[in-house]
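Feature request, filed as a ticket because there's no other form

It would be nice if the structure record came with a short human-readable summary line next to the tokens. Right now we just get the raw output. Example of a typical job, pasted below so the devs can see what we mean:
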Amino acid sequence: MEKISAGLKKHLNKELSQLLSQYEKKRLTLAREAEAGFDISFALEEEVWERKIKFLKNLMKNKEVAPFQKKSTEVVLGSYVTINFQGLKKSFIVDGVGYKKDDIMIVSSKSPIGAILLGKKKGETILFQGKTIKIETITSAW
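Raw output as currently delivered:
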């Protein structure tokens, strides 16, 4: 089972709650307008809202919440990871959905590197595309 950082789970729950609230307000507004005789098609807009809601729910579905630790030993969803790739240090967040800093790279857990890193521990080395990568640091991004 994939793990997710407690901070990312909290952030996603907040995003989902706000989205559901906005969605319900929009539906009520359109229902009132329809009662007043306005012919408004909500189907396309409704589909977009529902896709966003489904996306957030799926991100959290069947995930084990990793206990919060600023410095972590295992890569989970929401981890800020620094790797050493042939002498070059690269840092990124694994599935940092909604992370607000522009200078931070986000890597999907479904990407080749993201999928390999999940569950790995600080100090481990992995083989990626024929090259050795060492996991230098793992911290919570949230």
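Something like this underneath would help us a lot:
Helices lie at 6-35, 43-60, 112-117.
DSSP finds three helices and seven strands in the chain.
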